[in-house]
Amino acid sequence: MNTNGKKPKKPLIFYYLIAAAVLLLLNLTIVPQYMGRQFKEVDYGTFLSMVDGGSVKQAVVENNTVRFIAEDENGNNINYKANIVSNSDLSNRLYEAGVRYGQDVPEEMNPMLALLLSWILPLAVLLIVGRMISRRMGGMNTMSFGKSGAKIYAEDQTGKTFADVAGEDEAKDALREIVDFLHDPKKYAEIGASLPKGALLVGPPGTGKTLLAKAVAGEAKVPFFSISGSEFVEMFVGMGAAKVRDLFKQAGEKAPCIVFIDEIDTIGKKRGGGFEGGNDEREQTLNQLLTEMDGFDGNKGVVILAATNRPESLDKALLRPGRFDRRIPVELPDLAGREAILKVHAKNVMLSDSVDFNSIARATQGASGAELANIVNEAALRAVRMGRSSVCQEDLEESVEVVIAGYQRKNASISQHEREIVAYHEIGHALVAARQSNSAPVHKITIIPRTSGALGYTMQLDEDERFLMSKDEAFNKIATFTGGRAAEELIFGSITTGAANDIEQATRLARGMVTRYGMSESFDMTALETVTNQYLGGDTTLMCSPETAAKVDAEVVSLIKKAHEKAIGILKADMDKLHELAGYLLEKETITGEEFMKILNE
Ligand code: ADP
Ligand code: MG
Ligand code: ZN
Fold it and tell me: Rounded to the nearest whole angstrom, what is the distance from the C-alpha of residue 205 to the centroid of ligand 2?
């Protein structure tokens, strides 16, 4: 951004420091040399008596002036000059006095030149240095504004376009109107339409909200001001509000432009209530934001975008018409979206012919755009590590697992007995899954430990994307979760901690069936829990009496017990296959879904 007009405040100190340094340097070096060449004027008689007195050391005559160097009482050499009145025997007289007579005396400096060197030159240096500094400042994207010192990231051109955002077509459609408005605000003003002042991008982390905001600015070719909500929350009360004021003032000057407030939930939390008590600072900041949003003219061409992954915690005042009244969901990508995102990020990556992004997209249900970008990069890094010149399917598959489960722990020392437990556990999952209808086919089973702590895992992959789950499918899924533990019980007669994660997932699903999906006998279609944190982990809060809560717990327990028994039944009926497959897995460490099915169907 160009910082014409207002000079940035902090850099001014550097400016002064450098100027002072330059001046000091000049005064210590060049200037004294020239300043020394000033001449004290005396009359001719004084000159002659100085010659006779023997204090004159050197002299030179030019035109009608004599310049000479003489010692003063303290023995310092001083430059003098005198007008010659009569030239009769000057040379002789000088000779007799032992004065060196010739060219040794420096010329007198032009007074103009002296002025130039001592004042104008330093000033010029100062100016040039200053100009350089302010130009360099202009090249950076961080500016400090006014008194608040708010860090506002401003970009003239973000360089992003909608082409950089894969999938998210609904969000893009919703934002296209804003782009059009920014292109030509007058068109809207003439008709009398005023566009929403703000749009709120809502969705889980890493789905491309920030990217979309930048793309809007890039498409509209307008400047992009961004600030993160957390930057408003300051140590000193009142600073946050000042920052908001600064931000809008700057934006007003640069309109049309985009103002992007990331993580707006940090300032936009519901006011009052809550357990923390009032937070004056945050409320002030929020009030200032509301005031500014109301205050500016909607047709000026300033569009405010904000992003959050906690929309439910936002203050209602922010969401009312005239503020962030447009809410744009940016959800986790679907199958097609994931494939598109993988392709966008693989654009500059060398790929071998084996690469099939569709299968990678299928294996990454629930992954965000950021995670997919990471997967592509991990794959490229792996290809380099392997000394290959292009990325192959195996690299991508391995990096999916790295992102899901962490890196392989190749040299982890695990006893043979534990390896056996893990192998039976994983085959237990896979067998239970395979022997039930309506469960996703097994894609891969591995007992290579991972840095996440997983000692092995079974990957199931649906043929295509699923959006609904029937009650039966949900129940079968719980049975599959319990299948690992069930195998341990059957084979070793003891149980291990290895099922902790399965237990967590089974419980969450069973609870959901009872409290949210109306899939239990006793409660019919009653909502007993609400999701409070849709995009961040999906925490729930109970909304029923303690008595009901106790019944819910009992229902969840009985559901899981039933599923667990089902799993045990399935495995008991298939002991031979359980042994055979576990033995094969122990030997191979990793087996594919096809290998698994082949042995199972023999
Ligand atoms: P958010 O702000 O929603 O948390 P970001 O916009 O910061 O997410 O996304 C992080 C990164 O993930 C982006 O820089 C981009 O590389 C990648 N990404 C996320 N979503 C997409 C998408 N839909 N298309 C392409 N890349 C994406
Ligand atoms: Mg973001
Ligand atoms: Zn398990």
Answer: 7
